[in-house]
Design brief:
Blueprint lengths: L4 E8 L5 E5 L2 E3 L11 H16 L3 E12 L2 E4 L2 H8 L18
Antiparallel strand pairs: 1-2, 1-4, 2-3, 4-5
């Protein structure tokens, strides 16, 4: 099993989607994210992401550990497993599924 590395993530402000750092940009697919094997490079990327916070592109950037298992990235923390899978609400249930919410 490969040693853990880190990925930089945040939420995009315009739509709330989970995004990942790739070469100074933000991508939606975990598999496209840059992998940081050392703390110095990871911290440099996190510092660079603060520009996107100031520019109101993303909020709350942070690093989290993943394992690269045979070319597939696997988050090690439950929160990131859920975030990588996409929204956890069903649009056919509750107020998210209603076209019009009466006041």
């Amino acid at each position: 099993m490969a040693a853990p590395v880190q990925i930089l993530t945040a939420n995009r402000l315009r739509d709330g989607d989970v995004v990942y750092w790739r070469a100074g940009n933000w991508v939606e697919n975990l598999g496209d994210a840059d992998l940081f094997a050392d703390k110095v490079t990871a911290q440099e990327a996190l510092s660079a992401a603060e520009t996107a916070v100031r520019d109101r592109i993303i909020v709350s950037p942070y690093l989290f550990p993943v394992r690269n298992e045979d070319g597939t990235l696997r988050p090690l923390e439950q929160r990131e497993i859920i975030r990588a899978a996409g929204p956890s609400v069903r649009l056919d249930l509750g107020k998210q599924g209603q076209r019009h919410v009466p006041l």
